[in-house]
Amino acid sequence: MNKHILITGGASGIGLGIAEALADSDTLITVTDLNQEAALEAAKKLSSKGYHALGVALNVTDEAAIIQLLSELPAPVDVLINNAGIQHVAALEEFPQNQWRLLVDVMLTGTALMTKAVLPSMRERNFGRVINIGSIHSLVASRFKSAYVAAKHGLVGFSKVMALETAEHDITINTICPAYVKTPLVEKQIADQAKNHGISEQQVIEQIMLAPMPKKSFIDIAEIAHTVRFLMAKEACNITGQTLALDGGWTAQ
Fold first, then answer.
1. Low-confidence residues of the chain, pLDDT below 70?
2. Residue 148 known to be catalytic
3. How is the chain split into domains, by residue range?
4. Catalytic pick among 51, 100, 127, 148
5. pLDDT > 70: percent of the chain
6. Contact 23, 3 (CB under 8 A)
7. 132, exposed or middle or buried, with CB in 10 Å at 0-12, 13-18, 19+?
8. Whole-prediction pTM
């Protein structure tokens, strides 16, 4: 195997879609998820197609667990895809403090802990790719998503700092920022937004989610996976600390 790709939150949605797109005979895909059964099922799905895959439970906010996992894997990580994410939609006055902290811990602190853990090996081998799955909300804001927007904005700044700290090696760190992707996480958001705004779910899709996009369409997971593959390439060695928006023209306005 030539590559080892580790994807956090890889048992469903965007993470699983990326895993399926990147899997090949020369690659080991390690799928992590808070839910061990889901991680094992995702790995089983990949393995059934003849690919090399591992499924493991991991809490990305637990530094000791991260270090333990990396010590047990059969090969060092070449590509880290920080994808684990959760959402909670509520006005700040009604936002539970523990939920606010959890979102930031998973999507920002967890990303930092995962990156910190893989960097020594990447430096030693003079190669590494760290790809953060951000969001259109890394670049713009929406009401009722204070914790999510804060965490996703933080990814952009974190990537820039890490680009500077790893510049002497063939290591890059970038953030992919897609607009809305039809995943279970977004499906739940539609219902939550409808409740918070007092409108129908179809109105949420048309008036909130797709309204700012000139192309008026959800982003396909295949588009994100293709961007990941591009950033992994040797020829992308000087693309680092960058934010790639897959937003249908949203931020061009």
1. none
2. yes
3. 3-179+220-246, 180-218
4. 148
5. 100
6. no
7. buried
8. 0.94
